[in-house]
């Protein structure tokens, strides 16, 4: 292999290692140092409802003052790949792995639902820089609504309950717009449109809180993983993990190239595709009572493996001159 490529990979691995060590710290605190699920829930609530929104709001509050905005065609590349791979994954789960109709829908969701909030946002800013914030935020603002709605519709058809109504659809949309991350994205963009600078007495507390977001989020991810353990369904989990970590970013990259997406947007969406499965997929398992063991296993596998594949992907994107 090219020594320059190896050097770049070593550099990206060095940059990402402290972040994944923070995940391991969270895992260790929960597994061996007495931080129970109550503590994990409190920290997760602070990270998701306070720290991450503070960081997002501050980063986006001058988005229209700075040069360069996200090319919204990135949504076509990202969610186009998600739709295609969702149905491919669902087909594999149903026809090849012999899973139930509901379990197959959850499996398909696991193929495309990354941990974009708690892990993706802080990791991307640290490894790629603040220039990717608009692109990451564009995906974040649509991610939960589109993918939750997709799996809800699919599961309802699988169950054939007849409960799929406009009311349930709008309830899903409303729940998304109550999401603190989504609220902070819209408020940050709206503030940026005013062209005003945030007063220091307000900006400084927001900055201090936002600075805790990366560490807090990564620790919370690790503590969450400690609640799950490798169990039944491990073979299916490996299939799911392979699709998520390799086919997902590859398909995103292919669509990004086909539509002529710019380097920052291409790197941003491919980076998100490389991330491990998000905890939201496990919440879906609990809600629909299907494929819990498969998803729990895959969350652990993809998180461990992505500690190498994420820096590798960034290395390849930089080496090929895309970013």
Poorly predicted residue ranges? none
- Tell me which CATH architecture applies here: Up-down Bundle
Radius of gyration: 19 Å
CATH topology: Na+/H+ antiporter like fold
Number of helices: 14
Q: Outline, from the CA principal axes?
A: globular
Attribute tags:
323 residues; mainly alpha; 14 helices; 0% strand; globular
Structure description:
The structure is a single chain. This protein has 323 residues and is an all-alpha fold. The protein has one domain: Na+/H+ antiporter like fold (Up-down Bundle). Helix content is 79%, strand content 0%. The chain has 14 helices and no strands. Helix 2 packs antiparallel against helix 10. It is globular, with a radius of gyration of 19 Å. It starts with a helix and ends with a helix. The relative contact order is 0.19.
Short characterization:
The protein is mainly alpha-helical and 323 residues long.
Summarize the helices and strands and which ones pair or pack.
Layout: H1 3-32, H2 37-60, H3 74-96, H4 101-110, H5 116-128, H6 133-159, H7 166-177, H8 180-194, H9 200-211, H10 213-226, H11 234-258, H12 263-273, H13 279-288, H14 292-319
Helix pairs in contact: 1-10, 1-14, 2-8, 2-9, 2-10, 3-4, 3-6, 3-11, 3-12, 4-6, 4-13, 5-6, 5-10, 6-7, 11-12, 11-14, 13-14
């Amino acid at each position: 292999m090219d020594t320059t490529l190896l050097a770049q990979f070593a550099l990206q691995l060095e940059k990402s290692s402290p972040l994944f060590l923070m995940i391991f710290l969270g895992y260790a605190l929960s597994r061996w140092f007495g931080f129970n699920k109550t503590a994990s829930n409190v920290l997760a609530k602070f990270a998701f409802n306070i720290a991450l929104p503070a960081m997002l709001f501050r980063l986006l509050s001058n988005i229209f003052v700075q040069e360069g905005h996200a090319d919204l065609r990135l949504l076509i590349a990202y969610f186009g790949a998600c739709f295609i791979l969702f149905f491919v994954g669902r087909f594999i789960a149903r026809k090849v792995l012999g899973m139930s109709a509901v379990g197959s829908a959850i499996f398909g969701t696991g193929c495309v639902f990354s941990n974009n909030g708690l892990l993706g946002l802080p990791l991307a800013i640290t490894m790629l820089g603040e220039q990717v914030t608009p692109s990451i935020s564009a995906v974040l603002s649509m991610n939960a609504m589109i993918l939750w709605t997709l799996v809800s519709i699919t599961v309802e058809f699988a169950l054939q309950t007849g409960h799929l109504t406009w009311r349930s659809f709008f309830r899903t949309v409303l729940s998304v717009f109550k999401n603190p991350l989504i609220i902070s994205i819209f408020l940050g963009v709206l503030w940026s449109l005013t062209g005003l600078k945030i007063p220091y007495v307000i900006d400084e507390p927001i900055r201090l809180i936002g600075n805790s977001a990366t560490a807090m989020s990564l620790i919370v991810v690790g503590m969450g993983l400690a609640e799950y353990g490798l169990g039944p369904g491990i073979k299916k989990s490996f299939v799911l993990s392979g699709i998520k970590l390799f086919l997902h970013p590859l398909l995103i990259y292919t669509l990004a190239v086909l539509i002529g997406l710019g380097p920052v947007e291409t790197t941003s969406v491919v980076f998100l595709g490389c991330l491990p499965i998000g905890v939201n997929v496990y919440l879906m398992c609990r809600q629909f009572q299907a494929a819990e063991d498969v998803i729990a296993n895959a969350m652990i596998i993809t998180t461990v493996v992505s500690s190498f594949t994420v820096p590798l992907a960034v290395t390849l994107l930089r080496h090929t001159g895309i970013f």
